[in-house]
Amino acid sequence: MSPLPQGSTIGILGGGQLGRMLSLAASKLGMKTHIYCPDANSPAFEVTPHKTVAAYDDEAALAAFADAVDVITYEFENVPAATAEFLAARKPLRPGANALAISQDRLAEKSFLASKNIPVAPHRAVESLADLEAAIDALGLPAVLKTTRLGYDGKGQRVLRDRADAAAAFAALEPKPLVLEAFIPFDKEISVVVARNTTGEVRAFDAAENVHRDHILFTSTVPADIAPGLEKHAAMLAKVIVVALDYVGVLGVEFFVVPSGERQALVVNEIAPRVHNSGHWTEAVCLTDQFEQHIRAVLGWPLGDPARMADVVMENLVGDEVLTVPTGIDGNTQPHLYGKTEIRAGRKMGHINKITRRS
Amino acid sequence: MSPLPQGSTIGILGGGQLGRMLSLAASKLGMKTHIYCPDANSPAFEVTPHKTVAAYDDEAALAAFADAVDVITYEFENVPAATAEFLAARKPLRPGANALAISQDRLAEKSFLASKNIPVAPHRAVESLADLEAAIDALGLPAVLKTTRLGYDGKGQRVLRDRADAAAAFAALEPKPLVLEAFIPFDKEISVVVARNTTGEVRAFDAAENVHRDHILFTSTVPADIAPGLEKHAAMLAKVIVVALDYVGVLGVEFFVVPSGERQALVVNEIAPRVHNSGHWTEAVCLTDQFEQHIRAVLGWPLGDPARMADVVMENLVGDEVLTVPTGIDGNTQPHLYGKTEIRAGRKMGHINKITRRS
C-alpha cells in the first residue's frame, strides 16, 4: 500500500493522554484525527474537531467511525477483540488484531515470547486454587499472582510471600484465569520502544531505565546505566518481537535486568502494543519522537530518525504534582500537560523531560 | 497577573499554519484553543474543537469569542486596529495593540525603530507623485517603493531602477500612502526570533540566515554564517525592540547584513509581532520552540530554554514541493505539514527541518 497522503484521517481508539499525543503528532504530519472514546470528558477530544462518544461495542458507532477514517490505531491494549475484528474488516487496523490478542492476555503473551526464545519469567496458568498450590510448589515463593487480562499500573496483582496468603489472593483477583509468575530479583527495570512499518523497516529508540513509585512509572532515565552490550541485546530482542508479530506501529517492551553470574541478563516483563509512558522522553531529544514514529508506521510512511540529541530524565506528574508547572520547573525542562480537567490522586496529569547533559 | 493554569483557553486570531502550530504548542501545555478566522476552510480548525468562522469586524462574534477565552493572541500582524481594541477591552490581548499598530504600518515601524536608535534603511513617506520625485532625489536609485500597509511575501512593492518607472509604480501600488526605501546592497539576510513575557524576561533564539526565492522564504540556516559579534549584536537589537514595545510574546526581526568598511553591520528590514517562518527550525532542535515560547509568554509563564541542540536547515515546502514528503526526504529530516487541502503554486504547504550537524 502506498503511504497515506497529508489530509488523510487517522481514527484513534481511546481518548486519554496517549491518544491526545498521537493526535498532536498526526497533526504535525498534516493529518486529521478522529478520536473514539466512551468518556465524553476525554482529554484527546480537545485537539481535534472529529470525535465519537460511544461504547466500544456500539456497532453502529464503530461502523460510522470506520467510514469516516482512512486507517485506525489505538492508545490502549484492552480494545475488545470483537471491536478490533469489526473495525479491521472495514479499514486497516494498525497494529493488527493479532498483537492486541496476544498482549491483552498475559499467558498468551508469555507463551508467544517463549516460543520465540525470548526470556520470560517462569510462570504457570492458575484456574483453580489447586492450580495455584501446584504452581507454588513448582515456582516457590515469593511469587506474583496476576490476572491474565486488564491489569495495569499494579492493578490486578498480588505478591505472595506465604502459602497461607494463597487462598485470599486467589479469591480477590478477578477476572479469572490467573497466572503465577516466579518473583524475579531484578537489579533494575529498563524498556525499549521499537517501531516497525508496513514495509518491514524496524528502528528502536535508546533504552530507558525506569523507576516506579506506588506501581506507577515515576522516572525514565536515558541513557540507562547498563552495559552497552546489554542495551544492544535489549534492542535486538525488541526487534525480534515486532518482526515475529508482523507488527506495524510502536511497541513498548519492558525488561527486568537480572544478575547472571558476573554479568547481567534480560527477562521480558511485558509488552505493550502502543506508544509507551517510558518513551515520553523521546519528545524532548529525538528528531522523531515515539508518537510521530507510531503515526508514520500507521500511515505506511518510512520511519523517522530515533537518534537522541541529549541525555534526559522523564518524570511523570501524578496527581497534584502537575501544579509544580510552570513555576516549579527550571529552564532546562520541557513540560507536557494533558489538559485533564480534574486532578485526582494517582492520576497521570502530565510529564516533564529534564535535559541532564547536552551531547 | 499569575500564570494561567492548564485548562485555560487561548483565543487565536487567524487560522493559517501559524495559528495551527500555536494551537498544537498550547495543547502540549494542557491548554484549550479557540481559533477565530473568516475562512471556513482554515487548516487550524483541524486541531481544536473550538472555532469561530466570522469576519474580523463582526462585533457579535468577537464579543462571544472574547467571552469564551482567557487570553487572546494572533498569528498575523494585519489584525484590524478596531478589532484589536474591541478585543483588548474584554480580555488580555498579547502582544498588545501597540505592537500591532506599529508593525502594520511600515512608516510607523521605521519611525519607531529609528527613535530607539535601531538602524533602518533611509526612507521617505510618499503620498503623491511629487513626494516620490523628491524622495528619489533624496535617496537615489535604485530604491524600493512599498505600500505602508498589508504587504507580505514581496506583495505590495516595486523596485525602481529608472526615474521613468516612477509614475507607473506609484499608480500601481495600493493602498496609499507609500514609502520609498533606499536600496540596501546587503551581503545576506538574517533574522532573530525573540521573546518577552509578562514579567519582563527576555530570551532570543539563535540567528537564522535566510534565503528567499520568488519573494518567499526558501531556507533558514542555523547557525548563520556571520561573525559571533554580529550575531550577539542582532540578539541585542531584537531585545531592545521588545523592551521598547513593552512586548509580550514572540517577535521576528529581519535584518540585512551590510558591508561596513572591513566588517559588516546590521540594518533592520522589518519586524513581525508573531511567530515567524524563519523560526520554524526551533521546532526540531530546541527544548522550547518558538511556538511554545509564544504560548508561554501569552500565558504569563516563565520563558523556556531556547538553546539549540544541533545545526539545522529549515526549508519551506511551497506548492507541490509538499509531495516530496514522505518518500523524498531522508531520515535526518523532520517534516511538518500544514494539512492544507488544496495545493496551489506559491502556497506554503509545509516545511522540513534537516539536521546538518549534531553537536
TrEMBL record, chains A, B:
One of its GO terms (cellular component) is cytosol. Residues 110-299 form the ATP-grasp domain. GO terms for biological process: 'de novo' IMP biosynthetic process. ATP binds at residues 106, 146, 151-157, 181-184, 189, 212, 269-270. It is an enzyme of class 6 (ligase). The keyword DNA-binding does not apply. It catalyses: 5-amino-1-(5-phospho-beta-D-ribosyl)imidazole + hydrogencarbonate + ATP = 5-carboxyamino-1-(5-phospho-D-ribosyl)imidazole + ADP + phosphate + 2 H(+). Its EC number is 6.3.4.18. Pathway: Purine metabolism; IMP biosynthesis via de novo pathway; 5-amino-1-(5-phospho-D-ribosyl)imidazole-4-carboxylate from 5-amino-1-(5-phospho-D-ribosyl)imidazole (N5-CAIR route): step 1/2. GO terms for molecular function: 5-(carboxyamino)imidazole ribonucleotide synthase activity; ATP binding; metal ion binding; phosphoribosylaminoimidazole carboxylase activity. Keywords: ATP-binding, Ligase, Lyase, Nucleotide-binding, Purine biosynthesis. InterPro entries: ATP-grasp, ATP-grasp_carboxylate-amine, ATP_grasp_subdomain_1, PreATP-grasp_dom_sf, PurK, PurK_C, PurT/PurK_preATP-grasp, Rudment_hybrid_motif. The keyword ATP-binding applies. Belongs to the PurK/PurT family. Catalyzes the ATP-dependent conversion of 5-aminoimidazole ribonucleotide (AIR) and HCO(3)(-) to N5-carboxyaminoimidazole ribonucleotide (N5-CAIR). Catalyzes the ATP-dependent conversion of 5-aminoimidazole ribonucleotide (AIR) and HCO(3)- to N5-carboxyaminoimidazole ribonucleotide (N5-CAIR). PANTHER family: PHOSPHORIBOSYLAMINOIMIDAZOLE CARBOXYLASE, PURINE BIOSYNTHESIS PROTEIN 6/7, PUR6/7. Homodimer. This is N5-carboxyaminoimidazole ribonucleotide synthase. The gene is purK.
